[in-house]
Amino acid sequence: MRLKFDTLLEVQDYYGSSDFQVEAMYDELSGGEYIMFRFGYWNELYYEDKFYAIFERLGYKVEKQEIEDDDTGWNYWYNIKNKNI
């Protein structure tokens, strides 16, 4: 999977900050490679549909992930995957 720098700038414009992390991931059990986005300290996004639209028009799908941590509360991250996975 590849993202252009312009896509990252579009995400920054959407989020209103450069306080996000991007990580290339590979998990053979869940269908291969994907890109994980984490915003701030595991923040949940507002207006997620706008974030999803950035990647859907590029042919990707977005999967929201969440887990409750005893120490930090709810943690959220977003996986960007090929639509065929």
Characterise this structure.
It is a single chain. The chain has a four-stranded antiparallel β-sheet with strand order 1-2-4-3. It has helices at residues 5-15, 48-56; strands at 20-27, 32-39, 60-69, 73-82. A hairpin with a 4-residue loop joins strand 1 (20-27) and strand 2 (32-39). The longest helix is centred in the first third of the chain and has 11 residues, at 5-15. Helix 1 (5-15) runs antiparallel to helix 2. The model has no long low-confidence stretch (mean pLDDT 93). It is α+β, with helices and mostly antiparallel strands. It is built from two helices and four strands, in the order H-E-E-H-E-E.
Across the major sheet, the strand order is: 1-2-4-3
How many helices does DSSP assign? Answer: 2
Uncertain stretches: none
Helix-strand topology string: HEEHEE
The helix fraction, in percent, is 10-25%
Measured by DSSP, the beta-strand proportion falls in 35-45%
**Over all CA atoms, what is the radius of gyration?**
13 Å
Give the strand tally. 4
Largest sheet: 4 strands, antiparallel
| N→C terminal distance | 12 Å
- Estimate the global geometry from the Cα principal axes: globular
What number is the mean pLDDT? 93
The SS-based structural class is alpha+beta
Secondary structure layout plus pairing:
Layout: H1 5-15, E1 20-27, E2 32-39, H2 48-56, E3 60-69, E4 73-82
Antiparallel strand pairs: 1-2, 2-4, 3-4
Helix pairs in contact: 1-2
